[in-house]
Amino acid sequence: MTRRDLMMAALAGPLFLRAEENAPKLYPAKVGSQWGYIDDKGSMLIQPSFQEAWAFESDWAPVRTAALWGYIDAHGAIRLDPKYDEARFFHDGIAPVRVNGLWGFIHRDGSYAIPLQYQSARSFQQERARVRVAGLWGFLDIGGNWVIKPQYDGANGYMDGLAPVQIADKWGYIDKQGKVVIPFRYAHARSFGARKAAVLSDGKWGYIDLAGTMQIAPTFEEALDFEDGFCAVKKGGKWGYIGPDGRTRIDFQFNKADTFRSGLAQVTIVGRDAYIDHSARIIWQSPLA
Prior knowledge:
The protein has a domain at 19-124. Helices cover 2% and strands 54% of the residues. It has one helix at 3-9; strands at 26-31, 34-39, 44-50, 52-53, 60-65, 68-73, 78-84, 86-87, 95-99, 102-106, 112-118, 120-121, 129-133, 136-140, 146-152, 154-155, 163-167, 170-174, 180-186, 188-193, 196-201, 204-208, 214-220, 222-223, 231-235, 238-242, 248-254, 256-257, 265-269, 272-276, 282-285. The strands form 8 sheets. It has a 4-stranded antiparallel beta sheet, with no helix packed on it. It has a 4-stranded antiparallel beta sheet with strand order 8-9-10-11, with no helix packed on it. Strand 17 (163-167) and strand 18 (170-174) form a beta hairpin. The model is unreliable at 1-15 (pLDDT under 50).
């Protein structure tokens, strides 16, 4: 399973987040059944030894060993032992973890910043974390206080000051106090990036600006978030990359494609995972089986 597979399977929104400034340029890469990490030149710096591995969104990354998740640093050293049923990224100094069916938030020393109590929880983005209680999503501040009480059927993270939320079968956008800024009119909606957000309208994905005006017409079968001036979109059964003006920057040629992060993006080419740079040059590719 690629990082993008995990992302698309998430209950509410992608697992890819904007990396903090101290995040090393290391990228999860799978060899056989094990995951390790490559650098931005394609060299394997942390040897494959994990059952699953997610990105370094801070100076630590969540990894799975056997059935449990823990955290490693940029040298591959274990910083928090594998003891969580699920673990997400550290942002703003705390990270959501799941134990025995409930989610809470931990400090870097493993102590709980916010106790286990939620059905679901996601990492903080712009000082807000979305959590689910009794089937509905709301937003917490860093202290674990409700800023926006649970009321939404779906929610993604804050970027550019707005978060996409769902009521019934429609998505719109709210500000950090919960005020509706863009009305509930989309079949699905993703978080903003580069002041644009992917929305699903009439069966196709396009991109709106912060005012809700369509900037890139809905013509795509799938669409992810803008990062590094690129955005992965699917058209004609293949993935490629567009720029903020909607023009193609990397031709539609991939079976799967992920968001760029610090200059590289993970793609699948004829069944093999690879990382490419902004010129579509292959930096690393998984070995042939």
